From TrEMBL:
Pfam families: Amidohydro_2. It comes from the Archaea. Residues 12-320 form the Amidohydrolase-related domain. Gene3D superfamilies: Metal-dependent hydrolases. This is Amidohydrolase. One of its GO terms (molecular function) is hydrolase activity.
């Protein structure tokens, strides 16, 4: 748990990946362009002394991921959001099955989500059922700009997509995470447009739609949709690192989100390994809204709000009992590995290392 002015904040990183972008796994030029674009995002928004080399970035492996997420207790849990990109990568960029190897090794620490692509038709519906039967996935991550043959994307409000959302509802897969906003070379920006969330959210009020990246740069469009649909949430991945080197922009984004959505529908995510929670959590928690934004929007980035955004809101969506988790983490394998037993056991846990 992160320590903030002597208070504990339980952190659930709502957006993490374990990817393979090695040259051996790339089968299409788009795969190389994709990882190079990711690396540009990484170096732009990461402190120089914390930046990785491109070789580290291509494939970092399970052991490093566990240490980066949990080694200094910056994050307490994490949610896997798969990104297949099988037209670009021979074995996929990070699939549910690949993520499952680590998630099943540490089920108390990871939530495993699946995916669907409506272009797969009946075969895709069967695959979604298989993921549910095998892993009991509570959510899916959707990539509407993913290339598939001659297709360069799909829409969440298409008739075919609605068949998959109906299947999610039937199976009890309640959390629908959609990448909406930032484009990644060579994918198309318009295929990541947030507009198709509106009809989907209205048509499936029993599902929760977490718009990852809060639609950036279309923040206004996202906020106007989310203000009308109370089952639409904002995922802070990509928005969060602005806290590090664009604090004024971060203040503006958070103020807009808090004013339109309120403090109960915003979720923290690092987008690991785009950025590393071992420094990002501190940047976000310690950030402050500008005086101008506090006056204009009438919102606060205070302790109660930080607790909700950094973990409690995700816990509500995924039925995670934070107190039960804290007790379990006093002696789980990861706490033993990183000497964190006292951190979770004492009434006043030791501060996590920077």
């Amino acid at each position: 748990m992160y320590q903030y002015n002597g208070e504990e904040i339980f952190v659930i990183d709502g957006h993490v990946h374990l990817w393979d972008a090695t040259e051996e796994n790339i089968k299409h030029q788009g795969g190389e362009e994709f990882i190079q674009c990711f690396y540009d995002y990484h170096t732009t928004f990461t402190p120089e002394e914390r930046q990785w080399s491109i070789d580290e970035y291509r494939r970092y492996g399970a052991d490093r991921m566990v240490e980066d997420l949990f080694g200094n207790a910056a994050a307490d849990m994490a949610i896997f959001q798969p990104t297949y990109l099988t037209d670009f990568y021979t074995e996929g960029f990070n699939t549910t099955e690949q993520n499952a190897e680590l998630a099943t090794e540490h089920p108390e620490r990871f939530v495993l989500n699946g995916t669907f692509d409506p272009r797969d038709g009946d075969e895709g519906l069967e695959y979604l059922e298989e993921l549910h039967d095998e892993y009991r996935i509570p959510g899916v991550k959707l990539y509407t700009a993913e290339w598939r043959g001659d297709s360069k994307g799909w829409r969440l409000d298409d008739e075919e997509a609605f068949e998959f959302l109906e299947k999610c509802s039937e199976l009890g897969i309640e959390n629908i995470h959609a990448h909406k906003g930032p484009t990644i070379r060579p994918l198309n920006r318009d295929a990541f447009d947030v507009a198709d969330i509106d009809d989907a959210a209205s048509s499936f009020p029993e599902l929760n739609f977490v718009v990852e990246h809060v639609g950036l740069p279309r923040l206004d469009d996202f906020c106007w949709i989310a203000a009308q649909e109370n089952n639409v949430y904002g995922g802070l991945a990509v928005a969060a690192p602005f806290a590090q080197n664009r604090p004024g922009k971060f203040s503006e984004i958070m103020s807009e989100l808090l004013w339109w959505l309120g403090e109960d529908r915003i979720l923290f995510g690092s987008d690991y390994a785009l950025w590393n929670p071992d420094w990002l959590v501190e940047e976000v928690v310690e950030a402050e809204l500008t005086q101008e934004d506090r006056i204009e929007y009438g919102v606060e980035w205070d302790l109660e709000t930080k607790r909700k955004v950094m973990g409690e809101n995700a816990a509500d969506l995924y039925d995670i009992d934070i107190e039960e988790k804290r007790r379990a983490f006093r002696e789980d394998e990861i706490s033993l590995q990183f000497d964190l037993e006292d951190h979770y056991a004492s009434e006043e846990p030791a501060p996590a290392d920077d």
